[in-house]
């Protein structure tokens, strides 16, 4: 794999939020499952009239990557007026699926694909709870739940 085909790197949740709030050519892509969006919550970007794109990387129960992920995301980005040079910040529960999605889009020619370190909830703490050690929630960033 050539360097140009690799994702652009990991970013901390606060840095991603800050970049999203100031860049018109940037988007947050949540690659978790429909169940996670509904029951765990989603990033809230309304403070700057932002809205995440939701495209599952894997369906539930965990399976291979969703067939057509790249095409689905490319279509949604195009509908928002974003091209292959837009900054794309990928998010999942802990940062594993989002890393795979960032790499896949980089290999498809998208040049600014970032993985949000720690994901939405981060790893389990010693008591077996997520969302308190690292990630979007633990960083105190806005989120909503249906």
Question: What strand order characterises the main sheet?
Answer: 1-6-5-2-4
Largest sheet: 5 strands, parallel
Total domains, how many? 1
Mean pLDDT over the residues: 92
CATH C-level category:
Alpha Beta
Q: What form results from the Cα inertia axes?
A: globular
Could you tell me how far the N terminus lies from the C terminus, measured between alpha carbons in angstroms?
Answer: 40 Å
What is the percentage of strand-forming residues? 15-25%
What is the CATH homology-level superfamily? Rhodanese-like domain
Question: How many beta-strand segments?
Answer: 7
Query: SSE string, helix = H, strand = E?
Result: EHEHEEHEHEE
Specify the CATH architecture.
Answer: 3-Layer(aba) Sandwich
As a whole number of angstroms, the C-alpha radius of gyration is 14 Å
Organism: Roseibium suaedae
GO molecular function: transferase activity
Pfam family, one: Rhodanese
Keywords: Transferase
State the main characteristics.
Thiosulfate sulfurtransferase, transferase activity, STR4-like, 146 residues, two-stranded antiparallel sheet, 4 helices, Oxidized Rhodanese, domain 1, Rhodanese-like_dom, single chain, alpha/beta
Notes on the protein architecture:
One of its GO terms (molecular function) is transferase activity. This protein is of the alpha/beta class and 146 residues long. It has a five-stranded parallel beta sheet with strand order 1-6-5-2-4. Strands 3-7 form a two-stranded antiparallel sheet. The chain is globular and about 40 Å long.
